[in-house]
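During the reporting period the student researcher (J.K.) took over the structure-prediction task from the postdoctoral fellow and processed the backlog of single-chain submissions. One of the processed entries is reproduced below for the supervisory committee.
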Amino acid sequence: MNIKLSEEIILTNIKSEDHQKFYALISEIYKESYTYLWKTDCNWYLNYAYGKDAFNKDISERNSINWFVVAGGDRVGVIRIVIDKPYPDSYLKKAVWLHRIYLKKEVQGTGLGKLIMDYVMKVAQDNRCEILWLDCMDSKDQALKYYAKHGFNRGRLQRLDFENLKDKYRGIFLMWKKIERESISL
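J.K. obtained the following structure tokens:
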């Protein structure tokens, strides 16, 4: 099923047979933005987090939704949400986890992120969730500012333990936003 966010922007479901397309796109986007985190190249992490086994686990997880972001006919990003995934530090258990939102640099700053966030909030509202949460590297100032601008609060700072990760880049914030009950029109 395709979801039309605007005349040019469509979300298309990622299916099990899409691994090669997914892996090529996520590798391109990840390398544009996160290579600096690693002592060596990041290919081992890409295989660990986005290889065939991890991909199959992600798309088969109960209540997960995985989309390609298509703009003007080109795949420009990927999104993954998990409905009913409780925020670790809250008594509010009805939550949506925005596990993954990766966009090519060429579409960042164009309003696409807001369009996507509005749609994810609508999905959360439609599922009667109380909280939308995500993880954000503490070294990604632009992303932290973006999420704060859109009402997200910084929660606990966690420390990642990947062996090849540079020590100064091990921090990752849990971030959350309470979901308003009023509807969002798209």
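The committee noted the following: Residues 19-34 form the longest helix (16 residues).
J.K. will present the remaining backlog at the next meeting.
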